[in-house]
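pasting for ref. prot 1 ->
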Amino acid sequence: MMVRKARCEACGAAKVTPCESLYIYCDFCGTLMDLDVGRLRTEGVTPGPEYAALQERLAPALEAARARRDRPALMALHRQLQALFLRDCAAGYPPRIKDPAYRAQLIEYLAYGDVVRELDPRIAATALALSAAHAGLEFDEQGGRYVIRAKTLWPILEAQRRAAQVYRACLLDTPDPVLDPDGAPDGVGLAIAIAMVIRGFMTMVDDATAVEMLRRTGLAAGYEQVPDVELHAVFCTGCGARRTLPTGARRALCDACGRLTEVGTAAHCGQCNAAIVFGLHQPVVRCGHCHAEARLAPRLT
């Protein structure tokens, strides 16, 4: 079967099952590991008119809070905007958005990001560079539609890449940072931030430029043929939905309810007492601390 060519930065495992979502989670530890860039040109989301109305209604309060540099007030206002945006554009977010606890954490994280973006002077400097790059954008007519002239797009991508790096650094450089609820490794978070920018350009470029855009941003990992793996049926402890997971899975995402649940068996190493986890249908593991072999005791019936 063909799967997205990706490797989890958290546990090192390769993707071994197809993904039905734009967001790719590790089959073994449940960590967000990549985006299925093949879907970037086909899966678009747009907020409804209620969101635009809320933006207009909150604009005076936002401007006043920015002028006062009032972080709590800005957070409260951006929470409202993000909550409505997520409601309208849920299809563009990770499947975990179905989990109310995750959704609340994501709204808090995105609102926090908006506040940092508006108040940190380092981000303001990158915004000026982005504006200058966008000013040079040119279009050509192809087949009855206008597409971006490729050579004018590359300065924008470079400015966006730099802006994303600065933004992510600024997110952690505050007295009370709000952490990414996915807990994705920083390299994955940066790649996803850049991919979200690319997503906005995908419908505005021709096929050759789209391919080159993915190559330049390091997102063109492609797909690979992997052998079929043994899958085991398990049931989500949150909603009861049935799902199939590979041998060795320790934590998994439920596509039905969005919850991440533990499917492995927690234990302690008999040699050094370090915490270990036996994956699904995996009776033997090696301790990550002392490297001793550990065997799961059979259940008594």
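and prot 2 ->
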Amino acid sequence: MPNKVIFFSVDRLGDYLIRSNVIKQISDEYDYNEIVCSNINFKLISKQSFFNKVVEYNKYKNSKYEFLKKYFLKEYDAVISFDGKRISKLLLFFIKSKFKYIFIYEKKGFLNKIFFYINIFLFKIFKIQYSILLNKALIETGKIDNYPKKYKTLNKLFNNKSEDTYYIEQNSIDLKIKDDFILIHLDEKFDDILNNENNINEVFINFSKKSDKKIILTSYNNNSKYYKNFSIKKVNFSNLTEYTNNDKIIIIENIPLNYFFEYIKKSFISISCHAGMIVHPAVYYKKKCIDIIHYHEVNWVNCWATENKNYKRIYKSVDKKNFSINDILNEILILTKKY
């Protein structure tokens, strides 16, 4: 069995999740595996027991020089960079390894094209294998890509048999919650729907009255304008005992990630504006999920996840028509009744 492999996943939570099973399958082929990740996905990755070492890279706290020095001429049997970040590309050149692989983003614009082909030229000189991913700007011009399928091309190189997308280690936690609530995660992606909404509390309370299920709204360090206007009962997770009260609708703040996944597993349906911490775990756990997006984002979102019997979409806008939160919540009620 080969000895050491190192991965680079210095990006967001959803990015890691859609390649998590590929990483797990490759890790199983090595005696030692290490991953460099971001401060954003560190909490989840550090809970995955199959990693021998998890290193956090925070661009606001760690200098590139510090990491270049740390990994300069270190030896591994394989180096795989998934994130396309500058720090990962630099380290790919300085680490000693017989097998090097990178996923590089092709971007829109003349200068980006020049840098892209310079990178390709260097990869060929240094015998670095690569796959090309299209970035958001190119996808929005009508081009198509699918990131999980691209990551799975590594399966052929490592003779991996599993074609699953996700691998999440999660200890079961008893939340003492009935499995019949609607979970809605509120973040900055709700800004374009809610920031100009004057009767936000009334709309959500009416939604809870029309639904036969309890409503749990969640948020994490939310500083959005709309969120400050909520007068619905807010409880910080650290102060939450158990959800046995009579509140038909409640806001639970700052739920730790491992507990958050358990809320998704216990929910009747989970809803967000394409929050990675909602969509991908819901798909993994085969739970019902609704993604709220703009219609023009469909091709981009298809790069990450495609609609199926459990994963549905509702649109914030179609062409130039914008929908209110009341319109969206009514559409959610219709979909939940179909489930």
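The chain has two domains: 4-158, 181-338.
DSSP finds 16 helices and 15 strands in the chain.
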